[in-house]
Amino acid sequence: MKSNTPVVASEQKSNQQISTLRRFLGYLQPYRREIPGALAMVATGAVTQSVGPFLIGWSIDHLIARGNLAGLLQMLALLASIYLLGIVAIRGQILRVGWIMQRLLAQLRQDIFHKIQSLPIRFFDRSEAGDLMSRLLNDVNTVNQAFGQTVAQMLGNLFSLVGIVIAMLSINLQLGLLSNLVVPLMIFTTGLFARWARARFRVTRKTIGELSAKLEEDITSVREAQAFNRVSLNIEEFELLNAANRDANVEAVAITAAFLPSIDFLNTLATAGVLAYGGYLTITGAATVGVVTAFLLYVQLFFRPIQILSQFYTQAQSALAGLERIFLLLDEPNQLQDAADATIMPPIQGEVRFEQVSFGYNSNQLVLRNVSLIAQPGEMIALVGPTGAGKSTIINLILRFYDVTNGVVKIDGIDIRSVTQSSLRRQIGIVLQDNILFSGTVAENIAFGRPNASQAEIEAAAQLANVHDFILSLPQGYQTQLGERGAPLSQGQRQLISIARAVMIDPRILILDEATSSIDTRTEALVQAAIAKLLKGRTSFVIAHRLSTVTQADRVLVIQQGQIVEQGSHLELLDRQGVYANLYALQLGST
After folding, report:
1. Which of 306, 366, 519, 561 could make an S-S bridge to 360, C-beta 3.0–4.6 Å?
2. From CA 205, how far away is CA 326, in angstroms rounded?
3. What is the CATH number of the domain that holds 114?
4. Beta 509-513 vs 539-543: how paired, if at all?
5. DSSP character for 474?
6. Domain of 417: which CATH number?
7. Looking at the predicted structure, is the pLDDT value of residue 149 above 70?
8. Mean pLDDT throughout 137-157?
9. Is 436 a domain residue?
10. Is the pTM of this model over 0.85?
11. Per-residue pLDDT reduced to its tens digit, 24-48
């Protein structure tokens, strides 16, 4: 029995394309008032194009054949006026439709960026930044090329085609039917080439995404690549991805290149048919020279919009492939949405409580197992333990970058899942080992969490972070422009600015993740002094591998294999001679 799987798959792809196109057209909703005016200009341009050959044919039979020079001059003036009106209408339709489409595409980009910014951290654990950038830039640009730049022309030609068919059938039914005999062949040819092109364009969109991801990764890690002598291997890997993208594009172009000559052949076939049969009708007296001339002009006009529409159809395959990738991203479920009845987190005192919390980044393996802890307001909690023990996971759960698998995390007795994420994170500050600064001024980086902060508030935060004097030494002080990731500042200077950034939001809970591990001794003293000021009166969680940095903690939690195996002050844990004491002795022996 013959399988119908390919047929089903083809129907599914076709339905997917229709659904994708319908969803894209939904973006026109805000511009429904502008659309009738644009369509009116499109229709006007189409009418002016379709009426021309009729008037030319009529002039041959009724003016030129009869030697009516005055009438011919009047007809030329009428034709000039009609074509001038057409030029104005076509220009207007291009401007109006282009205005609508560019705003539509801008909204699409905005939706993609908003989606990327609002997706949970879990999504980025399995996604590549370069591929996401490709969807925002390359895929939207492909849609722009297919729809934004040619949709006005496409609509005009579609209206023209309808007008031309009506005119041809009205002038001479036999010649009109003969001219349209090639339309079924053209539809079949277009559909055949479109199916081939659709598959290849999907591959091109996929490979350009992979290429962008590889490019972004290799550019950001170029120092590591050179340091580990991996440059040649990176080049080889990029060449393979580049070649895959090249081959996919070559195949797509080859299909398009074969398609256009096929349409030209059908055009020539129709022209020959009209010339042969029209000549016969003229000789037998069944048609006039003017009618045949008009038909020859109409055939040329008839196939020009078909060629453009067919070419647009193949371009649309690439655009639809890009739209499919875009909508897949927009449909990505946000597994960390605020609850429907989520409330605003009130000003917090800083008590943090974990109650029998278990969590895993995937369903097969738990990172935390039945963790319970209480941090009192203003208490400094140090988290120590081997890499992968679960220290950073505890921090991620406090910030609600992920939701617990079991148990509950509470702040001031409130389940953090019952409040909005923004109101929760607004009261939590974080200083990481490798803090990222952004392109912009020093002042803008300090005020990152409070964009409307005054200059006096920015400078006060910088003074508290022991970085004010350094900033004043920069060429433009607080208005000094920084490059990507804070270049050209040193790691220590970036760290001090990131501390000032945390000061700006005046957090009640502060998280420090190896904040002094990558800086020199002199800068470390400045950072430690700044951190000491920042910690006063705040609940803090400090992740540290260097145990000498947590001796002042109120409590030290020793994490191993996702569980708290020891807790107490630095001196209490040393007296117990347990896991912490062994870790401390090992570090002391290695220094």
Report:
1. 366
2. 11
3. 1.20.1560.10
4. parallel
5. S
6. 3.40.50.300
7. no
8. 74
9. yes
10. no
11. 888 888 888 888 888 888 888 888 8
DSSP 587: H
Average pLDDT over all residues of the chain? 81
Contact 538, 510 (CB under 8 A): yes
Statement: residue 358 has pLDDT above 90: yes
How many Cβ atoms sit within 10 Å of the Cβ of residue 240? 11
Do 503 and 561 belong to one domain? yes
Q: Regarding beta strands 406-411 and 414-415, do their DSSP bridges make them parallel or antiparallel, or are they unpaired? A: antiparallel
229 and 265 housed in the same domain: yes
Give the total number of structural domains in the chain: 2
Residues 314 and 413 in one domain: no
Neighbouring-strand partners of residue 430: 511
- For residue 233 the two structure tokens come to 């291997």
d(CA 334, CA 331) in angstroms, rounded, equals 9
Q: Which of 298, 330, 362 is the last residue of a domain?
A: 330
- Same domain for 375 and 312, yes or no, is no
Range of the domain at 569: 352-590
| Residue 136 backbone dihedrals phi, psi, to 5 degrees | -70, -35
Together in a domain, 370 and 477: yes
Angstrom distance (rounded) from CA 14 to CA 30: 27
Ranges of H-type helices in 408-490: 421-425, 442-446, 455-464, 468-472
* 222's tokens: 């170029």
Two tokens at 581?
A: 């004491």
* Predicted local confidence at residue 1, as pLDDT: 46
CA distance 138 to 115: 17
Tens-digit pLDDT profile for residues 508-555: 898 888 655 555 566 667 777 777 777 788 898 988 777 777 888 899
Residue in this structure with the two tokens 């016969």, named with its chain if needed: 280
- CB of 145 within 8 A of CB of 325? no
Same domain for 418 and 384, yes or no, is yes
Query: H or E stretch including 94?
Result: helix 69-118
Same domain for 320 and 362, yes or no, is: no
Q: Is residue 338 part of a domain?
A: no
Cis ω before 488 (30° cut-off from 0): yes
543 C-beta neighbours (distance < 10 Å), count: 24
Is 142 inside a domain boundary? Answer: yes
- Tens digit of pLDDT for each residue in 397-447? 998 988 999 999 999 999 999 999 889 988 888 887 767 788 888 898 888
| Statement: residue 5 has pLDDT above 70 | no
Confidence label for 194 from pLDDT (cuts 50, 70 and 90): low
Same domain as 291, residue 226? yes
